[in-house]
Amino acid sequence: MDSLECVPNVSEGRRPEVVARLAAAAASIPGARVLDVSSDPDHNRSVLTLAGSADALHQALLALYETALAEIDLTRHQGVHPRLGAVDVVPFVPLGTTPMAAAVAAAEQLAREVAERFALPVYLYEQAARQSGRRLLAEIRRGGFEGLAAKMADPAWAPDAGPSHPHPTAGASVIGARFFLIAFNALLDTANVEVARAVARRVRESGGGLPAVRAMGVYLASRGQAQVSMNLVDFRRTPLVTALDRVRHEAAALGSRVTETEVIGLVPEEAALDVVRDALQLPGFAADRVLR
Known about the structure:
This protein has helices spanning 16-27, 54-71, 100-118, 137-141, 148-152, 193-203, 240-253, 269-280; strands at residues 4-6, 9-10, 33-40, 45-52, 87-94, 122-126, 173-177, 182-188, 213-220, 225-232, 258-264. The chain is 33% helix and 24% strand.
């Protein structure tokens, strides 16, 4: 049986009781396991990590959507993270020997039913994209919820499934299939968000920085500090330590330093082992050297 991970990102990170109901909805389906729930009030976003068979995840995600659409109103939502939907993005990731094709099929099936059941427009991205211009999440999400109606008025941005106009309170949803992504954030010792934005520009691939790294600079009001928020879309090309070293270097050039980092959600074992290898200069370090 194919085994998949799914990492739905929902636009709610300030009401723990709502996040708990979202997680409970997903966990109510036999065979679907909720492995982690990470919330952030400044981003006003929660990331759930689920695992199971395609069928179990399908039913768990439908339960999640139903709860999210009842609980989240994007016309009242504010946060520093870009978003266009209540259930903003739902990527499937193949585990073990499961082929990427199984993740793509799961994404396509979910997109069809979400569009039909909830009258919600859906875009397919990454490996499930039907158009080359929709592979990147940032391109689909550009303009956010507030600009979605105008964007969808352009026939070039007709959704892959569902109505050709936004849901009034839930916007749209982006569903796809991809490799493991590591959400990795670095907190700086400054409240100046322009410093974080400058570091992000120098670190991300699109700015000539590190391969397979996407980054933005944001201000976290709850901490009074700026943050470099990164997505490592292929840790094999840019490991965690490499990304952190580059952020440290660029921040230092601007008179700042990293005070702490955080990982949102879970990381693959191989990515964690890479940290040990790099930090301790142990190139041959492997999982069988870890006492469990």
